[in-house]
Amino acid sequence: MATIQALRLIKALVRLGWTLDRVAGSHHILTNPGRAPVTVPVKKGATLKEGTARSILRQAGIGEDEFFDAY
Predict the structure, then answer these.
(1) What is the rounded end-to-end Cα distance, in angstroms, of the chain?
(2) What residue ranges define each of the domains in the chain, with the CATH number in brackets?
(3) Percent of the chain with pLDDT over 90
(4) Which of 64, 8, 3, 2 is nearest to 40 (CA)?
(5) CA 35 remoteness from chain centre
(6) How far is Cα 28 from Cα 8, in angstroms, rounded to an integer?
(7) SS3 of 1, please?
(8) Radius of gyration of the chain (CA)
(9) Is 56 exposed, middle or buried (0-12, 13-18, 19+ CB in 10 A)?
(10) Mean pLDDT of 23-39
């Protein structure tokens, strides 16, 4: 998996049906009915580490192929 910017990850999750519920400091919390909320840390101009991005996708129940189709 390539490096991913947090804001692009959030945009892809929104395209996949997630909604931005709230922002707490530098953390964006996205919700989807029937699923636990997913938190994405956002640091302006920085990219997410690969393990962090994979963990967010795993929590959201989204595979890499599905994610990159929406990315």
Answers:
(1) 12
(2) 4-70 (3.30.920.30)
(3) 85
(4) 8
(5) 14
(6) 12
(7) coil
(8) 11
(9) buried
(10) 96
Tally Cβ neighbours within 10 Å of residue 59.
15
Start-end of H helices in the chain: 6-15, 50-60, 64-70
CA atoms within 13 A on the CB side of 35: 17
Round the average pLDDT of the chain to a whole number and report it: 93
The tokens of 57 are what?
Answer: 């996708």
Cα–Cα dist 55/5, whole Å: 14
The amino acid sitting at 16 is: L
Amino acid sitting at position 26: S
Return the ∠ at Cα 45 (arms to 28 and 62), rounded to 5°: 45
